[in-house]
Amino acid sequence: MFIKCIVRIVYSVYIKRMVIAVVAKKGGVGKSLISLLLYHSLKQAGRSVELQDWDAQGTATKSRDLTEAERKAEASAEIVIYDTPPNLSHTATDAAIRSADLVLVVATPSPVDVWEAQDAAKLAQKTARKKAKVRVVFNKVRRNTLLGRVLDETAKQFSVPTLQTVLSNRECYQHFAWQGWKALDSTAREEVLQMTIAVLGTT
Ligand SMILES: Nc1ncnc2c1ncn2[C@@H]1O[C@H](COP(=O)(O)OP(=O)(O)OP(=O)(O)O)[C@@H](O)[C@H]1O
Ligand SMILES: [Mg+2]
Predict the structure, then answer these.
(1) Using only C-alpha atoms, what is the Rg of the chain?
(2) Range of the domain at 66
(3) How far is the CA of 200 from the centre of ligand 2 (A)?
(4) Domains identified in the chain, total number
(5) Is this model's pTM higher than 0.70 or not?
(6) Max CA separation in the chain (angstroms)
(7) Domain CATH number, residue 99
(8) With 7 labelled, which of 37, 80, 157, 170 sits at a CA distance of 20 to 30 A?
(9) CA atoms within 13 A on the CB side of 53
(10) What sign has the CA pseudo-torsion 12, 16, 17, 23?
(11) Which of 161, 154, 158 is nearest to 140 (CA)?
(12) What is the pLDDT of residues 45-63, one digit of tens each?
């Protein structure tokens, strides 16, 4: 599997696609959700996009199999998204970071997650290609809580910029894994669209 992973990643770089690596040191922060949301929203926008799942848990693969009636192989997709395991020293995570044009480090506002995301951001800065961008994206944000209200202060604790848009904590995002786009209400769709625009705007 790892050899296949490396070969596909090198191939992606060679044919000059935009490569987005979605990473975190921790599990459960929303890497797979964000990979899937970006994949579906870019597809909705008519972009040619490929999602590669390099986590043995296979969350992104399972969800995509459930939510896409038929999938055309995007052999030459203009955008490639890598969903990675919750382990920065994993071969697949390392290869994804090294090949990315944009490394998205996923963090929740919880202090414990922020510490781990700070480590991830530093490692990504060190490992990624010189021209690559590294950005933190906040997920599971609840604006009406203390941690939600101090998010701008929290963002300053990172060595890299944070995306201006965040993903809120919403139940419909949990349904998204098995229902896809139709699970999202209009507010969530707008939020995802804003995140997608912010992601595309970084490169
Ligand atoms: N913004 C959100 N609002 C509500 N639930 C969320 C949100 N983001 C993620 N979740 C839920 O949190 C759980 C973990 O999300 P996800 O599987 O995307 O994390 P992960 O970082 O990929 O985890 P792992 O490293 O274990 O693969 C899932 O049940 C998912 O539905
Ligand atoms: Mg995952």
Answers:
(1) 16
(2) 2-201
(3) 22
(4) 1
(5) yes
(6) 46
(7) 3.40.50.300
(8) 37
(9) 16
(10) positive
(11) 154
(12) 999 999 999 999 999 999 9
